[in-house]
Amino acid sequence: MMRGMGNMQGMMKQVQKMQKDMEKAQAELNVREFVGASTNDLVTATFTGDRKMKDIAIKEDVVDPEDVEMLQDLVIMAVNDALTKVEKETEATMGKYAKGMPGF
């Protein structure tokens, strides 16, 4: 009977360690910066791993008051590129913790 309790305690320690490792990995991911870019780097957007925009840079030569739609498209392209990079890195970093766990 005690043998089963020892296994349960060991499993609980493993779960607690995994939880701490996950929290540390998430914290490290949150402070990393990801830069997304539009065509020819005319617009770049910088996000942190927790999906907060830190910066957006627009090259002067792309600013055309007669073609605001193009600038909007370039901004959307850069933002989406950065968020895609955040998502891929989040999956690569945090996905390993969910493998083999039911419900994830």
Automatic annotation (TrEMBL):
Function: Binds to DNA and alters its conformation. May be involved in regulation of gene expression, nucleoid organization and DNA protection.
Protein name: Nucleoid-associated protein UC7_03236
Stored Pfam families: YbaB_DNA_bd (PF02575)
Record keyword Repeat present: no
Gene3D superfamilies membership: Nucleoid-associated protein YbaB-like domain (3.30.1310.10)
Protein family according to the UniProt entry: Belongs to the YbaB/EbfC family.
GO molecular function, one term: DNA binding
NCBIfam families named in the record: DNA_YbaB_EbfC (TIGR00103)
HAMAP family xrefs: DNA_YbaB_EbfC
UniProt entry keywords in alphabetical sequence: Cytoplasm, DNA-binding
InterPro entries: YbaB-like_sf (IPR036894), YbaB/EbfC (IPR004401)
